Amino acid sequence: MPSKLSSREKKCRLCFSKKIKEVLDLGSQPLANNLIKNKNKKEKKFPLKVFFCNSCNAAQLSETINPRILFNNYFWITSTSSTANRFSHKFYSKIINLTKIKKLFVVEIASNDGTFLLPFKNNKCRVVGVDPAKNICKIANRRKIPTINSFFDKKTSNLIKKKYGKSNIIFARNVIAHVKNIHNLVEASYNLITDDGIFAVEFHYAKKILEELQYDSIYHEHLFYFSIKPIKKLFNKHGFYLFDAFKSPISGGALVLIFSKKKRPSSRRLNRYEKDEIDKKINSLNTWLKFSKKVTNHSKKFREKIEFYKKKYGKFPAYGASARSSTILNFSKLNERHFNFIADKNPLKVNFFTPGTKLKIVNSLTFLKNVSKYNVVLLLAWNFKKEILNELKMNKFKGKVIMPLPKKISIKNI
How many domains does the structure of the chain reveal? Predict the structure, then answer.
């Protein structure tokens, strides 16, 4: 275990300004992906607070957890999500259409089990993944996706460059929000990419978080809550130019920004997204402060709704032991007193207990076989609601599904 578990930030990680203001306090919470084998184990908790930088408009956490604690052993496997699997093919098509280079070498930063590299490999591109989680790297390499077990930095980029040459396409999906020293990652990418290459960066979009009240996406792994404006400034500083963007269904609403070393004309959709960001005042301190009040009100109503159904039907199951479910349950003070268990598709999570809330995680297939006996199910993985509601119907569930988000609590009768 690293000697220093966490550190408190006193200035912006992006522009180093001290003009920062706290906008949201979700209390002290355990690490969202730190699943436990023994439910009686005492857990370390850390402040979960968001501050806003008045200089560069980047929203970010006040606390940085040692990344080795967070990422050396990881529980999320990309391929367990059918949404992610489907999108991996669309992602490939969109990226490939942005380049005219024929023989491509593609590098993914934080590549997980290689799901998003697979379409490139299957279309005769050379591929390499980089990921810090040893257990996930083993899975990727078994799938014949060459994956380096490391954090991505200048040293790793030099290693790849020496062994394979420079990369024409680099992409980083749902990772730049996790990195404290984001400047190093961007510099390392610039070092590795060809002059005519492109760098695609996906992140859970702050606009979606704000408009749909997605506070469950705030946890210690996600240091930043990005909009286009601060990322564009950051990448400009390191010699990258933003020229295009497209939407992603991941995380309940993400954005993929496309950068190049040489200036290229901005696409119409990028111009539209940037204008919309200005019109909706996404990069405003006041917008984040209003969001904070809505979060507190929502959490109170959510707890009241769960208490109501528990009183009416007794304890009932939850579906989706994701990191985001940890935030909303812990903040709303909901736990094993309210739910029988929590079901999840990821085999790595089965028989563990959720952090803070002590809910046993059961295999989703086992749960679905017996789902018809329940009157209520809480759908915490609401961002995958289409595929999960379909599963419930196929397994003859007839009852109420509570969805805490987006925007508000909703009840669907099946």
Answer: 2
